[in-house]
Each structure stands twice: as C-alpha cells, then as structure tokens.
Backbone:
C-alpha cells in the first residue's frame, strides 16, 4: 500500500511536466502574446492623430528597433522556446515563479494574496453542499416515491438546469438592487468601509457578502451530489447484505444507518479529494459574477492581460492541487473501504 | 439415510395458504384482467395500490400450506423458479416490495400469525426465533463491517447482554463453527475470508441466538463440493443446542436432501407437488415430476440404468398452464391435466401428492 | 403445448431496444419533453421564416421577389435608403402609398443581428414591449430574436460536440479496453495527463488568443471532452471481454472488428447512451460559460451567455439576464427530463422494502 502511494506521488512528476509543457507551448507559440500586446500599447499611445488604419501593417513602424529588441529581451523572447521552458522549470525548482508583468510583484505573492478569499467562499460552499446534499439524498432514498421525494426532485431538476453562476447573476438582478430589491451587495468580499464598522456590523457585512456567492456554489453541485447519494443508497439497499441485516431482526433505521449508509458513502467520499482541490482553485465564473478578488478572477484577468508568469503560476498550483487531490481521494477510498488495498 | 425419530411431534410452525406474488410489467401476452377481478383479494389489492396498475401478478408461490414439526429437518426441493426460495422468504417476510407481495396466508408460530404482525413486532422474531442462511456467502455479509461486529449485532439486538459478553459469545460461536484463532478473526472484514469460511460466519451469526427455525436457502450451492458436507454437518450439529429447533433446507440438490432431511416437499410452478418422508419419497415417488428428479440421479443400486433428464425447461412464470403446472413437461400427461389442476391429496399416510393419476 | 412455444418465441423476439423505447414512451414527462424539443429544434432551422428582418415576399410594381433568399438593395423596391432594404419601413411606406404593392414580413419581423436604433430612438437597452417581447440589448438588437437564434446555435453546438466526443471517446476506450496490455498502460498515462489539464483554463487561454469561430470552438471543446467516456467504455470492454459470449466468439474464429462491433459494443453502450442528454446539458453549460466570459462564439453571433454578460454589466436591465436564463432553463429542463426518462427506461432503479 505504501509503495502504491509512493509510486502515485512519483507519477505526479511526469504528469506535471506534461501539463506545464503543453500549456507553455500554447502560450508561447500562439500569436498575440505579451510582447505583441506591449508593442501595440506603445504604438497606440505614440501615434496620437496618426493614421487610423495600418493595423495590418508593420506593427513596429513607430517604435525604434532598439526598443523592440529591449522588450523582446525583457519578455525573454530572444531565446529559443526550449531554452525558455528550461529556464522556467529551473526557476520553478528554485520555487521562483517569476515576476508578474502587470503587478510587478513576484507571482507567488500575487497568488498567495488572492488565496484566502477564494478559500473562504469555496470552503463554505463546499461544506454546505455536503452538509445539505448528502442527508437530503439519503432521506430521499429512504422516502423514495413520497411527496417529499417528488417535490425535492423538482428542486433538484431546477438546480440541474441552472448553472451556478447564472443563478448568481439572476440573484444579483433580483436582490442586488438592480431592478427589484436591494437586499444584498453587488459583490466583493467586504464593503469598502468594512474597517470602520462595529464588531457586529462587520459580521453582518461579511455574512451579507457571503450568502449569494455561497448559494451559487451550492447550486452548482446540488443536483449531482444529491442524486448521486440517493442512487447510491437505493442501490445499496437492494444488496444481499441488507437482506441479511433485516433477517437479523434489526430495525429499519439500524439497517439503513448502520449498514447501507457507510457503503453508500464510499463513492461520495472518494470524490472529496478532487472536490477540495477544485474549491481551493476558485471558480472563475462565480468570482467574475460577484467580483470576488480570488484566484479565479486573477486567472481570468491575467489571461486577458497576457500576464503569462501569473498564468503559468496558477496553472502550476491548480495542477498540483488536482494531482494531490486525486491521491487524497485514493487515500480516503482506502480508509472507508476495507476491501481496497492498492498494489 | 437417517432413521426417522418423528412420531407424533408437535407442530412448530404452521404455514397456511401462502400466496406470494410478484407484480411485474406486462409483456405482449397478458393474463387478462378477468383473472384479477375473479380473485377478491387481488381485486382489493389492485384497488388500493396505485403501483400495481398495468402490472400482472406472477404467482411465485400459490396457495402453499405445510407444517414444520419440532426437531425436524424439512427439505424443499425444486428447480430454480419453482418457488422454493420465495416460500422460505415468505415465512420471515423478507420479500422485496415492490415488486413482491405476500398476498394472503398465515404463518402460525406459538399461536401467533407472523404475517399479521407489524414490522416492529416482526423484528423480535427475526434472528431470534427464525434465522436465515443465504445462498451467496460472498455478498451476504456487509463488506465494510468487521465480522465480529456483525455477529455481535444479532446478540446485542436480541439479548440483554453487555458488549464484552456479546464479544465473548460471538467469539465462541466462531470457534464452534470451526474458524481458527477466532478472537483474532473477529476483527477481520468479510473479504479476508474464503467462501466456505464466510458461510461458517453466516451460520455462526444465524445460530448465535439459538433460533427455533433455521432457514437455509441453498447454503452450499456456491461452495466447493468438499466444503458442502462440512457446512451441512455443522448446521445439524449446532441445531442440537435447542431441542425443538427445526431446519428448513431449501435446495435443488437431492443428494443433500437424502443425507440430511427427515421430510421433503417437492415444489413446481409455485405449488407443492408432493410431500413425503424422505425414505418414502426416495423409494416410491408418486408424482411424475419427483420421479423425473430422482431418475436424473445416479442410483448406486442399479448402476447400469441410464440417467434420464426431465424434458424441456420450466416455462416462464406467466406462461404456466392452466391445469397441472407440470403438464407441459409431463410424460404421462392426458387431457384432464390441461383442463383442471389436481388437488393435493394424502395418498398414503403422511404422503401427499398433487396429480390426476392418483385422484 | 405448441401454442406455448410460439408465444415464448414471440416474446423473445421483441428486441431490447424496442422494449426500452416503449418503456420510454410510457414516461410521459420525458416523452413529451422529447417531442417538444424535437419539434422546436426542427422548427429553429426554419427560423428566418418566423423571426427575421427579411421579408418573405415583396410585391413591387407587379413583380414578386423573395428577399428571404436573396439580397435586395433598398432602391430596387423604391425605398430611399442606402444599402439593403428595410422591409418593416417598406411595409409602412407601401401601406401609405396604397399602390397595390405589399410586403409579407415574418411573424416577428426583427433579425437577431439587426441594429434597431434608427427606428426606436432612445438609448438601448430598451425594456420589453409589445413590439419587442424581450426588449433590446445594449446595441439595440432585439433580444427575443437573439434568444431564438441562440437556441438553434447552442443546441446544434452541444449536439455536435456530444456526438464527436462520444465517437472519439468510444473509439479510444474500445481500443484500450479491447487490446489492453502495453497500449492500455501507455494510453492511460497520456490520457491522465490530458485529463488533468485544467481544461476550462486552457480553453480560455486558447480562445482569448485566437478568436474562435463555431467550428474551432467545437474542435476545442471536443479536444477536452472525450476523456470521461474513455474510462467508462474501457471499463465496460474489460468486463465484457471476460464474458463467455466473447470467448465463444473468439473460439469460433471471429475477427476482432466483428467482436468489437457486433458483440461487445452493443452491450457496453447502454450506460453512455443514457448519459447522453446530460452530456448535451453539460456542453450547453460550457458554451454559455465561455460566451459569458467573452471567450465563446465571435460577435455578433446570437448567444445566451453573451446576453447574460451584458446583463451583468447593466444590472438595472433585468431582462438581459432573466430572459436568457429562462430560455436556457426551459431548454435544459426538458433535456434533463428526457435524460431522466431514458435512464429510467434503460436502467430502472427500484427501491424495494423488506417489511
């Protein structure tokens, strides 16, 4: 078992380099990178009142050759691509992710400063999702065919047919003071005057900013998790060992909670590791809707602004999280299911 | 063959007119609605239960009555689909609903009709008075629960006992069923046991409260031939802890029946076709079906005779003939067999048969 | 007895698929959803006939023309405008002139990409009105027309992506599962790398750099969408391969291709088929998300996600969010109903109690 996990950890290395290499190549080969963008910016700023056409022409016409060379050197584009990747990897091994073009700060600082916000919303959403969906799924399975099951199924279908971010946008329109009610703020992590609020004011403000994004997170995985739980429980209730449990004279409650539940939770708990890594990486869509300054929004912005060091940095971290998350899933699997002994 | 010791033994269980139907999605060919309407009990069910709409009853067990006497080993034999297992499950009410339902009947034990009890009352009998061993030892134990806990669960559930004593008792049960170093193995999970070992665990679990009736549903079918005899022997040995205790053994293996049972019920098409003491049955079977079953066995007394199989297969449960259920495969079939179903009559002392040849 | 035999054969000859289809039809919610969405989808290919700016027929000076098929300049119908004729204005003009000329417009005479600022006045977006059922967007385009065309585009998009990912996923899964061994080990490693790639992230990177068109976006989403199916089909193949009927076919000297296509594949498809509607839903999600982020189909393609993006930056104009959301909601809900019914027909889960 230990050797299995050691091997899993070692396998992270090739996977990790495969992924970074692919992304690195995409970023470096396709046109429209930071160099072109910078040159364009300078040109746009430098030729006020100049010819308005010429977009197809030589983009460096107004910039001295030496400046272009300097820029090329600054972005490292003067070296061949394989050398650039090697440099990037070497720096990475020294735990140096480079410097952000946009923020002029080390990439690691930029990313670390955004993490807490993403984790805050993601983790609350994640915990609530499991706290609500798993019991709901179990209850639905036990009460299969009842009115409650029927009505909650309607909710589940609705949840399935609305993406979380779209639901968030709808809530903002309805409750964010746009057209109807002004109950919740338009987004952000806290109000701008947060520091001046009283203690309880701070709490209220924080909660106020938390509800809608968290509900959006919840909607996103509500349907899948509930139905997964329900089907898993129903599936297990028709197994032979359940019949054995009944034949022992146990109460229905004891059979469900003592026998069926633990088996049913196996497929759900193995998804945990994966889910946690996704939570930590933030959600681009929800952070964009609610203007939450987390990792998701950072990755969006840095792609738009061609801040490639940050893009690569986020990729490194989210890939590592994902890979480690997968291993955590395996560990959980081995913990909850005694039959699993990885070889 | 064992010597019969049953003289005028007391009845332990009385099973009366049990009908257990499975309500299944109708295929192209239907049993017409008239059939349902003619039966007042079915009509009542269809009116009260929406789920049954558009479904037809597959009569897995149809009007089965028999007694289980104290101390006996009663066998039920028949091919798969004959209704033998459903009969056994009906006694402990372990019929999956839907699609199954015990439509009518009585199971009398100590003057009480078990079929009329509520779930909570019934659970006092399961495991304590009636215990079961299932066909599939590989799937019948909870895979994520230590087997010690699974055995202790029955004991703790039915006896006023603390955990420590329950553990001791469970360990002793494991020892009795021949599991080496039982104390250590209490902490193991089912997947760490072989099939035969798991069946031993099942037996330990089933017998840990010394039930009055042990129902064993094909307990040896999934096991190696060499282990089968041990398992049967074990069940018989442990039964002796309680004198009036009886065993209901469901099997299609006539060899096992001959070795272990005192009395035998032969089932076909959801109905009892023949009941007899084991010697009477093997020496002079009445029903053509029983004859067929026996002549498919090698007989050491007549080594030169050919083994013969019963022709055809058991028809689909919805397509059983109107008259005698065995008519489609019977070599002695005549006109009347297709028309009316024979009654179960006592042809000789304690030897019942359902066949027009004898009525 | 003979009667019995023929009946048994008859029951056996009812194919499983037909049985499932029959079962599917009995699940009313799913079946009607299926009919509805099929009808709407077919209808949406004829959309210009019902919703569009081009007139169906114009009668001008005794001659009939069919602008819906052909470009006509304003001048050719006697309209004093530059460029293409504006048929709504033309209709008014002809009615005022009363010279026997007439224009037959579509029922809802606004195109999805047509800027209506000249006719409407005021500042876009305009709120819903009798004329513009869902108002206009921030460029003065009719929202209802954009929603309707977006339906066709979104659904076509996700159906194509689903089909492609299925074909690729099934093919690769079948190869890995059937041949096993080194191919399987090596293939799985590559797939694991590919599958661990944070694909939304990568798609955003690609589309932010090269503005994708319809086909390119299909290509990109297909590129990252086939992995889940591979694992599934591979597993099914491993399981089915071990079954007796396959060994029987092998021992009878059947070719590999025959074993794969006529023996194993039909048996392993059930779960993937019942999953297809949910895959379509997921692909619509992806498209809407990308459009919302601005990395989806190029403007001015009518799209739901792009409308929502507008709505979020114009939070006072509720219809820009509510209407696409409602359209998407009902589309996805019907597909989910279909999926639920298919699953029920293919793999019914009965909850039995022991009482």
Residues:
């Amino acid at each position: 078992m230990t050797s299995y996990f050691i091997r899993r950890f070692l396998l992270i290395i090739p996977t990790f380099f495969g992924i970074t290499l692919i992304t690195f190549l995409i970023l470096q080969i396709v046109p429209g990178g930071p160099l072109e963008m910078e040159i364009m910016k300078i040109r746009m700023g430098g030729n006020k009142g100049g010819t308005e056409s010429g977009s197809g022409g030589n983009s460096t016409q107004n910039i001295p050759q030496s400046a272009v060379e300097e820029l090329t050197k600054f972005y490292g584009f003067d070296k061949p691509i394989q050398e650039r990747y090697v440099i990037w990897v070497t720096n990475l091994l020294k735990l140096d992710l480079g410097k952000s073009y946009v923020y002029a700060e080390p990439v690691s600082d930029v990313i670390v400063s955004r993490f807490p916000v993403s984790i805050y919303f993601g983790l609350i959403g994640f915990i609530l999702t499991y706290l609500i969906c798993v019991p709901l799924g179990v209850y639905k399975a036990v009460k299969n065919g009842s009115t409650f099951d029927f009505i909650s199924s309607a909710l589940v279908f609705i949840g399935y047919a609305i993406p979380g971010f779209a639901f968030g946008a709808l809530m903002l329109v309805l409750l964010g003071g746009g057209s109807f009610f002004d109950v919740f703020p338009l987004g952000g992590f806290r109000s701008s005057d947060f520091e001046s609020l009283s203690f309880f004011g701070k709490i209220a403000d924080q909660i106020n900013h938390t509800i809608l994004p968290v509900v959006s997170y919840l909607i996103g995985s509500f349907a899948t998790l509930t139905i997964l739980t329900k089907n898993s429980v129903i599936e297990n209730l028709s197994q032979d060992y359940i019949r054995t449990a009944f034949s022992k004279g146990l109460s229905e409650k004891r059979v469900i909670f003592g026998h069926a539940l633990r088996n049913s939770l196996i497929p759900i708990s193995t998804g945990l590791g994966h889910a946690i890594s996704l939570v930590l990486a933030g959600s681009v869509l929800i952070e964009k809707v609610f203007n939450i300054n987390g990792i998701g929004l950072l990755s969006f912005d840095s792609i738009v602004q061609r801040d490639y060091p940050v893009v690569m940095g986020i990729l490194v971290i989210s890939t590592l999280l994902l890979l480690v998350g997968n291993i955590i899933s395996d560990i959980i699997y081995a913990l909850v299911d005694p039959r699993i002994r990885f070889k | 063959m064992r010597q019969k010791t049953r003289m005028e033994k007391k009845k332990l269980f009385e099973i009366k007119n049990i009908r257990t139907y499975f309500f299944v999605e109708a295929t192209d060919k239907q049993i017409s609605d008239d059939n349902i309407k003619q039966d007042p009990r079915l009509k009542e069910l269809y009116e009260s239960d929406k789920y049954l709409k558009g479904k037809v009853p597959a009569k897995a067990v149809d009007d089965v009555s028999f007694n289980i006497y104290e101390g006996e080993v009663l066998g039920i034999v028949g091919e798969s689909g004959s209704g033998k297992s459903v009969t056994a499950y009906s006694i402990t009410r372990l019929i999956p609903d839907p699609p199954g339902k015990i439509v009518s009947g009585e199971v009398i034990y100590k003057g009480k009709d078990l079929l009329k009890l509520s779930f909570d009352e019934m659970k006092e009998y399961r495991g304590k008075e009636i215990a079961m061993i299932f066909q599939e030892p590989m799937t019948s134990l909870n895979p994520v629960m230590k087997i010690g806990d699974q055995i202790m669960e029955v004991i703790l559930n039915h006896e006023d006992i603390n955990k420590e004593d329950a553990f001791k008792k469970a360990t002793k049960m494991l020892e009795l069923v021949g599991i080496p170093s039982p104390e250590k193995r209490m902490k193991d999970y089912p997947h760490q046991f072989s099939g035969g070992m798991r069946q031993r665990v099942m037996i330990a679990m089933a017998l840990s409260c010394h039930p009055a009736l042990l129902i064993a549903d094909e307990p040896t079918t999934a096991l190696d031939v060499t282990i089968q005899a041990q398992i049967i022997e074990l069940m018989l040995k442990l039964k002796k802890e309680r004198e009036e205790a009886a065993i209901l053994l469901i099997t299609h293996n006539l060899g096992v029946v001959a070795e272990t049972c005192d009395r035998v019920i032969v089932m076909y098409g959801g109905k009892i076709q023949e009941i007899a003491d084991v010697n009477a049955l093997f020496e002079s079977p009445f029903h053509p079906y029983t004859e067929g079953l026996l002549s498919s066995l090698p007989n050491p007394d007549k080594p030169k005779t050919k083994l013969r199989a019963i022709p055809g297969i058991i028809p689909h449960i919805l397509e059983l003939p109107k008259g005698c259920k065995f008519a489609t495969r019977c070599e002695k079939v005549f006109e009347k067999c297709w028309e009316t179903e024979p009654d179960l009559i006592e042809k000789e002392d304690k030897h019942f048969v359902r066949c027009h040849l004898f009525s | 007895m003979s009667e019995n035999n023929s009946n048994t054969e008859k029951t056996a000859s009812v194919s499983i698929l037909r049985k499932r289809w029959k079962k599917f039809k009995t699940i009313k919610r799913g079946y009607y959803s299926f009919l509805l969405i099929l009808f709407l989808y077919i209808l949406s290919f004829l959309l210009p006939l019902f919703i569009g700016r081009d007139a169906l027929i114009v009668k001008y000076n005794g001659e009939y023309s069919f602008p819906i098929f052909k470009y006509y300049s304003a001048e050719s119908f006697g309209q004093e405008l530059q460029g293409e004729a504006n048929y709504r204005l033309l209709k008014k003009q002809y009615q005022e002139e009363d010279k026997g000329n007439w224009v037959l417009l579509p029922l809802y005479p606004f195109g999805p990409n047509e800027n209506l600022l000249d006719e409407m006045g005021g500042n876009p977006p305009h709120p819903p009105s009798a004329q513009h059922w869902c108002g206009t967007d921030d460029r003065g385009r009719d929202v209802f027309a954009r929603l309707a065309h977006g339906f066709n585009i979104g659904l076509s998009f996700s159906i194509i992506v689903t089909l492609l990912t299925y074909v690729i996923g099934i093919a690769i899964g079948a190869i890995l599962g059937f041949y096993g061994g080194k191919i399987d080990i090596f293939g799985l490693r590559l797939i694991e790398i590919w599958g661990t790639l944070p694909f939304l992230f990568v798609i955003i990177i690609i589309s932010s750099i090269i503005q994708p068109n319809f086909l390119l976006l299909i290509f990109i989403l297909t590129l990252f969408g086939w992995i889940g199916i591979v694992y599934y089909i591979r597993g099914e193949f491993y399981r089915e391969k071990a079954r007796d009927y396959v060994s029987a076919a092998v021992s009878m000297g059947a070719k590999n291709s025959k074993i794969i296509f006529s023996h194993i594949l039909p048996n392993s498809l059930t779960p993937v088929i019942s999953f297809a509607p949910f895959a379509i839903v997921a692909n619509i999600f992806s498209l809407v998300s990308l459009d919302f982020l601005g990395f989806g189909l190029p403007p001015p393609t009518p799209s739901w996600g792009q409308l929502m993006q507008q709505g979020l930056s114009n939070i006072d104009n509720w219809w820009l969010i509510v209407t696409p959301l409602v359209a998407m909601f009902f589309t996805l809900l019907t597909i989910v109903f279909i999926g639920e019914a298919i699953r029920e027909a293919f793999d019914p889960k009965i909850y039995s109690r022991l009482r």
